[in-house]
Design a protein that fits this description.
By secondary structure, this protein is of the alpha/beta class. It has a domain at 3-181 and 233-262: NAD(P)-binding Rossmann-like Domain (Rossmann fold), CATH 3.40.50. The protein has helices at residues 12-23, 40-49, 63-72, 87-92, 94-114, 148-166, 200-209, 236-249, 269-280, 304-310, 318-331, and strands at residues 3-7, 27-32, 55-57, 77-80, 119-125, 136-137, 171-177, 179-181, 215-218, 230-231, 233-235, 255-261, 267-268, 286-289, 300-301. Strand 1, helix 1 and strand 2 form a beta-alpha-beta unit.
């Protein structure tokens, strides 16, 4: 039986992946420094799966801790979610992002190589594409990220591509997320940002539950159907199912391969708000603000390659994403606190 080390394992996506991999029959070990997550997630995972996987509190940049984990567990692969992820913060604190995301990932890869573990799925991002001038992003587009966060993702991708070029035993999947939203249908785990939300769905949810007074929508004059920005939102359950498919395919697809994880279609900000109003049965007050520098009018994932190579595609529509997100938020108005 394979044992997977999940870095960032108590975070939003990492916790959902933990449940998904356990339910698929894998053994897992969790590593997280709890900088943007909560230890309470561990009990929620145990409640959902009936299992309490080993947990290590620490950072991927801690080489002695990584040695300890590899020495105590027969780790056969890594699901790498650990990393800082706020675009605006990355602009303000670029060194922190390069040290954590890039240097930390290099330390993780060095530990993997030292202990003979060469299978990895990496939590990348659609931000690696930058602003390519096309609406549907394909995996073979040139990469030109426009902010430090996106550049850290591209740099880690480069490290992993170079590792695979140097050593044919490495097998890596680069999973480029679009906009993960929603929560586990049980309502036991979900997104719980520790500060003002950076992403649309938790921002709307915070307004719906009364934590924040009003939703600020940045731009209503884009060349889209209703003037607001259009993005490809994907249910977190679909997303982690994509990770499961990618990990299972590593033995069939040696080397380093990039896959888009999205639905292949977009929804506008106002469409997401309308879906949330329908799910929550309450109004969401909002105010339009000027466009933010660097924001694009519209983009979404081209998903043909992922569907062909992994046999995976998203199953849930926008309304299901919103309903599950609201179910989590209304039952956990303060997150895990």
């Amino acid at each position: 039986m394979e044992t997977i080390l999940i870095t960032g394992g108590t975070g939003y996506i990492g916790s959902h992946a933990a449940v998904c991999f356990l339910e698929a029959g894998y053994q897992i070990v969790l590593l997280d420094n709890l900088s943007n997550s909560h230890a309470a997630v561990l009990q929620r995972i145990a409640t959902l799966t009936g299992q309490s996987p080993p947990f290590y509190r620490g950072n991927i940049a801690d080489a002695p801790l990584l040695d300890e984990i590899f020495n105590h567990h027969k780790i056969t692969g890594i699901a790498h979610f650990a990393g800082l992820k706020a675009v605006a913060e990355s602009v303000q604190q670029p060194l922190r992002y390069y040290q954590n995301n890039v240097a930390g990932s290099a330390t993780l890869c060095a530990a993997m190589q030292k202990h003979g573990c060469k299978k990895l799925i990496f939590s990348s991002s659609a931000t690696v594409y930058g602003a390519p001038g096309a609406v549907a992003y394909t995996e073979d587009m040139p990469l030109a990220p426009v902010n430090p966060y996106g550049r850290t993702k591209r740099m880690v991708e480069d490290i992993l591509r170079d590792l695979c070029a140097a050593d044919s035993d490495w097998r890596v999947a680069l999973l480029r997320y679009f906009n993960p939203v929603g929560a586990h249908p049980s309502g036991l785990i979900g997104e719980a940002p520790q500060a003002v939300p950076n992403n649309l769905m938790p921002y709307i949810a915070a307004v719906a539950v009364g934590t924040l007074p009003v939703l600020h929508i940045f731009g209503n004059d884009y060349p889209t159907a209703d003037g607001t920005g259009v993005r490809d939102y994907i249910h977190v359950q679909d997303l982690v199912a994509g990770h499961l498919a990618a990990y299972a395919a590593l033995d069939k697809h040696p080397g380093c391969t990039a896959y888009n994880l999205g639905t292949g279609k977009g929804a506008s900000v106002l469409e997401v708000v309308a879906a949330f109003v329908k799910a929550a049965h309450r109004e969401i007050p909002y105010q339009f603000q000027p466009r933010r520098p660097g924001d694009l009018a519209e983009y979404y994932a081209a998903v043909d390659f992922t569907r062909e190579k992994l046999g995976w595609q998203a199953q849930f529509d926008l309304q299901k994403m919103v309903e599950d997100h609201w179910n989590w938020q209304k039952n956990n108005p303060k997150g895990y606190l």
